[in-house]
Amino acid sequence: MHAFQVGATAHFLGSPIGAKAQSAEVIAQTPSEEGQPGYHVRCLGDGRIRHVRESELSAPLTQR
Predict the structure, then answer these.
(1) Running along the chain, 64 residues long, what does each successive block of 10 average in pLDDT?
(2) What are phi and psi of 54, to 5 degrees?
(3) What gap in Å lies between CA 4 and CA 60, rounded to an integer?
(4) pTM across the whole model
(5) Are 18 and 25 in contact (CB under 8 A)?
(6) DSSP string over 5-55
(7) 58, 21 in Cβ contact below 8 A?
């Protein structure tokens, strides 16, 4: 079960910009991998689209 809906904003904890979490928008839900739901997110800081697992996202900041 996906905890984040498309359009939600969350913190991407696996951000390559360092230990600081980066805000990201969930743009798609993907099938579970290794028991965890997956997502495609667009990082708001650098605009890149990344594939992440639910464990790499923190609680949503806002829901649309």
Answers:
(1) 90 70 92 91 90 85 48
(2) -60, -35
(3) 7
(4) 0.79
(5) no
(6) -TT-EEEETT-TT-SS-EEEEEEEEEEEETTEEEEEEEETTT--EEEEEGG
(7) yes
